[in-house]
Amino acid sequence: MAISKDELFELLKLGFPDGEIKIDDLAGDNNHYAANIKSSKFKGKTRIQQHQMVYAALKGKMGNELHALALTTAEK
Amino acid sequence: MKEIHKKIEEIIKKNKVVLFMKGTPEMPQCGFSMTVCNILKQLKINFFSVNVLSDELVRQGIKEYSNWPTIPQLYVNGNFIGGCDIVKEMYEKDEIKKIIN
Predict the structure, then answer these.
(1) Are strands B48-51 and A32-39 parallel, antiparallel or unpaired?
(2) Exposure winner among A56, A71, B59, B81, fewest CB in 10 A?
């Protein structure tokens, strides 16, 4: 029940092609990450919508393979 | 609407501030739930808490209800506010008191 940093990056990059994406592996266990994403796709969206877009990009992995993802999103 | 979603809606309509969390405010079972509890306590906001670990139906149901895959989830006046990251960000920007008042 884990996901590699590279795999996480690929999924996010696929969802946000113009995104500036920064990922930290918080615990070194492939299970607790922090991600910072800047994308033009977030424009005009509420925080909830922005995070929901990220979760959608992760295709159901959030809460399953991926236990913890601290998320900060911003418009680019 | 699914029965469990009706039940969830009833809870968040009946209580001004509701936190769906893992564990209880006295003994949170997950760091993210603990963070949100601490913020609410710090701001002296009374909240109704639901321990999703004691009810698997609620645990799944709440994720579908809000289209949000993780716990904790904070609701104010019947509206979904966000999870730990959003609540933390709002706390840092001093926005939580505003939505409660």
Answers:
(1) unpaired
(2) A56
